[in-house]
Amino acid sequence: MKLAVLVNEGPYQHQASDSAYQFVNAALRAGHEVMRVFFYHDGVNNGTRLTTPPQDDRHIQKRWTALASEHNVDLVLCVAACQRRGLVDEDEAKRNGKDANNIAEGFRISGLGQLIEAGVEADRLVTFGD
Amino acid sequence: MSTLNIVNKSPFEKRSLEQCLKRIGEGDSVLLIEDASVSALSKTAYAEQLISASKLSKFYVLKPDLQARGFSEESLLDSIESVDYDGFVNLVVTHDRVHSWL
Amino acid sequence: MEDEEYQGGEVKKFLYVNRRQPHGTVYALESLETVLIGAAFDQDVSMLFIDDGVYQLKKEQAPEGIEFKNFSKTYRALEMYDVEKLFVERESLEERGLAVDDLLVDVEVIPGSDVKALVDQHDVILSF
After folding, report:
1. How far is B85 from chain A (nearest CA, A)?
2. I need a labelling partner for A114 at 20 to 30 A (CA). Which of A122, B6, B56, C38 fits?
3. Catalytic: A82?
């Protein structure tokens, strides 16, 4: 089956993004396709490459990046949520005159249309949030 | 038509569980995850409510969340089935839609 | 990304479930944003207001004092985007001492016992 996941909360503060990660992993293990994980609201904070969690803690961003490269999962950060919270890729940095970018490998920034498209194209959409 | 309802809040802190329960019906299921996993325990003040609701709907609890909070399957209500993440995926696939009560 | 358009052609029934007050968290505002994009993608869009979500439709919101945008006006504009199905649960209104006259837009008031049937009619549930 084709699944899509929506993540509404940032890493480390709330269990939501951990739950989403465990769910996606289990879905892939069972042979389902996870066509997209859409990160919305504070959820976009999952996509910064500048986090440095303690070594004995899980590295939430790196886990997502590994999923993207190993299983071809499309990780999309909501552009409007990114702009408000300082999540920037090269294009966004150029467009808004920022001196740096911070998006992690495997993530891309796009519009809310990607969430609607996921709702239309996936057989099930599962939301994780607060 | 069946809906998988996911609740993730402790009933002692937020009202999501009771708000979910009063709006679901026959054929629907409820999966208790994260802070809601403690609602599945047999000795809480919510046990009666869960027992009565489980006559109409099927209840599940996410075992890793329960274990993380120091509880085992032995402390669960009889009417509640515990599942791991593979079981969670299976519930999503076998219901028509998923409704998260955030 | 206002110029986005969905080319797939498939139409699904989306139900937006709104259960939170405006302003206290960002979710009410974001729900509106998503509803408008969903409508632009020619999807079948319904909104359900239950629990604290009914406060989103309260007349005379004046968030100037907290320097927030008054996005409550957008609910009145939804009709222009073919978003015409707004459902409000009667018990949620009553519990809060509110009546239909307190709301800034025309809605269909439904009893709580009809919520399941409404949910059952939809393909995708988005919770805010």
Report:
1. 6
2. B6
3. no
